[in-house]
Amino acid sequence: MLEQLQTILKEATSEISKANSLDELNSLRVSYLGKKGHLTLASSKMKDLSKEERPLAGKKLNETRSSITQNLEEKINALQLIEDNKQDKSLDVTLPSDPIASNGRHPVSQMLDSTIKALRRMGFSLASGPEIETEWHCFDALNTPKDHPARNETDTFYFEDGRLLRTHTSTVQIRTMEKCNPPVRIIAPGSAYRRDEIDATHLSQFNQLEGLYVDRDVSLADLKGTLEYLLQCIFGKETPIRFRPHFFPFTEPSFEIDILLEAEGKKSKWIEIAGCGMVDPDVFSEICKARGDDYYSPNQVSGFAFGLGLERLAMIKWGISDIRLLIENDVRFLKQFS
To answer: I want to staple 209 with a disulfide (CB 3.0 to 4.6 A). Which of 189, 216, 244, 301 is the partner?
Structure first.
């Protein structure tokens, strides 16, 4: 058997060295190492050997298999190197490359960035908070009465334990005032959730950016100046802006803000774009109760708050008629903003 193994190794080595293709080498692998190969047939004769002959034959069998395998791998590497060199010589480096697709940011992300940049220039810092909130942070601390429609289960996503998905990012204002002493000047971008039917103008999950400024002697003039500057940064310096009296539970006085939309070929019209107002003294009083001090006493501080819907801002800025386009991820739509 030892002589047979030596003959197999010699023949395999010779045939492998003469092979000129990967297909030939694969055939040789099967011929010598396959289930019906020469080496497999030789190993089947181990049972005919005596106990004394088996250890030496087994060792020689393993050495032969290892040698053939190594010769095959070395020959494969050599042929592959020759093939790679041929391809390198045929490569024309002067040919133009394939075009690289240009990437762009989502319109809501672009709106978020430009809004934050404008507010950071006015001294606002970023703040964040949890999206799963308590009723106190979402409603009670913001002076929202128990019978307010927003607290109904048909408008708000409630959990079994009484917590809820925040309906606005105003909850971050409350959490900030709980932890930080005045003065406070923060903006809170993030997701909000409401049980709205999804249509051309509504989503059940949307992005808000709310702002809060609390200090001594903060006035309505400060609020108007801040928001006029912000909206003109977004829509242009010549954009007409107006404030209309409105009602929100957590601000007094309260306003809705409109801008004059001028589309080519269409009649100009005022579009509601945000809500704002001076922080209601009852909100400050509730914060003082929660903190157990008078740092936010309405007799000592005043402040303003505002809220913007980022999808709505993007729709107005770029003339998007259906809010659902912002969540469908249609590349044909998104390429317009790259």
So the answer is: 189
